[in-house]
């Protein structure tokens, strides 16, 4: 398996623009997670999906952030409009099940810079 | 609330020397504990995890960690560090009764020749 795939790897945009980050989880994994990593706040869970359904989005910082999972092999995280404070590395991860007995596999991340 | 503290922001060791990365957690019951490694430009990779049983846990890449309840610690160790071990290491705890993993701030490891 190719692992979790994220695109783009790097994104530079200007404040106010819409940004869409993409993720392809490992085939067969029922759970998908979006994380954000910043120097100030470390690694934070934004939202997770089970069988394509968003289950907990309490970590989503603002209404400017939205996430979708239209099918089992694709998810997007959208920021509209983007702001400089959204600059971070965004990780997608997937796992077979919830809880801690199954490993979460992380993608390589998307480094977002908002100017 | 659960929390994880990694007291060292960065550590430098010589290649071939032993390594110990510190991790302290705050949790009321027996926690689920993890160590992840993040190489530059890569995502996090699980090194090892502890749920119960033997308090000394073996992981990948020659790493091990020891759970000490009395000290609320879960320190990561490796007897001989290789240059390829240079990376950032994250300790994490599983949220009680749930699914969220709480990550520490990370310790960046530098390996000198």
Q: Which terms would index this structure?
A:
A: four-stranded antiparallel β-sheet, globular, B: 113 residues, mainly beta
Layout of helices and strands:
The complex is a heterodimer of chains A (115) and B (113).
Chain A: E1 5-7, E2 10-13, E3 19-24, E4 31-38, E5 42-50, E6 53-56, E7 65-71, E8 74-79, E9 88-95, E10 105-106, E11 110-114
Parallel strand pairs in A: 2-11
Antiparallel strand pairs in A: 1-3, 3-8, 4-5, 4-9, 5-6, 7-8, 9-10, 9-11
Chain B: E1 3-5, E2 10-14, E3 19-21, E4 24-26, E5 32-38, E6 44-50, E7 56-58, E8 64-68, E9 73-78, E10 87-94, E11 101-103, E12 107-112
Parallel strand pairs in B: 2-12
Antiparallel strand pairs in B: 1-4, 3-9, 5-6, 5-10, 7-8, 8-9, 10-11, 10-12
Structure in words:
The complex is a heterodimer of chains A (115) and B (113). The N and C termini of chain A lie far apart (36 Å). In chain A, a hairpin with a 3-residue loop joins strand 4 and strand 5. Helix content of chain A is 0%, strand content 54%. The mean pLDDT of chain A is 93. Chain B is globular, with a radius of gyration of 13 Å. Chain B is mostly beta strands and 113 residues long. In chain B, the strands form three sheets. In chain B, strands 2, 5, 6, 10, 11 and 12 form a six-stranded mixed β-sheet that branches. In chain B, strands 3-9-8-7 form a four-stranded antiparallel β-sheet, with no helix packed on it. In chain B, a hairpin with a 4-residue loop joins strand 8 and strand 9. Chains A and B meet through strand 5 and strand 10 of A and strand 6 of B.
């Amino acid at each position: 398996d190719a692992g979790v795939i994220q695109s783009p790897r790097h994104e530079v945009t200007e404040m106010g623009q819409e940004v869409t980050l993409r993720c392809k989880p490992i085939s067969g994994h029922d759970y998908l997670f979006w994380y954000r990593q910043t120097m100030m706040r470390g690694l934070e869970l934004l939202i997770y999906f089970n069988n394509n359904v968003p289950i907990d989005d309490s970590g989503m910082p603002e209404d400017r952030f939205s996430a979708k999972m239209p099918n089992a092999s694709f998810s997007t995280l959208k920021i509209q409009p983007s702001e400089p404070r959204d600059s971070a590395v965004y990780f997608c991860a997937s796992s077979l099940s919830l809880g801690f007995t199954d490993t979460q596999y992380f993608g390589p991340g998307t480094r977002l810079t908002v100017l | 609330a659960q929390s994880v503290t990694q007291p060292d922001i960065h550590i430098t060791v010589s290649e071939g020397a032993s390594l110990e990365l510190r991790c302290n957690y705050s949790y009321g019951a027996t926690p689920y504990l993890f160590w992840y490694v993040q190489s530059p430009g890569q995502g996090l990779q699980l090194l090892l995890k502890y749920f119960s049983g033997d308090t000394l846990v073996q992981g990948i890449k020659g790493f091990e960690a020891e759970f000490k309840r009395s000290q609320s610690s879960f320190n990561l160790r490796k007897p001989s560090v290789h240059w390829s071990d240079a990376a950032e290491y994250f300790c994490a705890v599983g949220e009680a009764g749930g699914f969220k993993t709480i990550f520490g701030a990370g310790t960046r490891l530098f390996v000198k020749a």
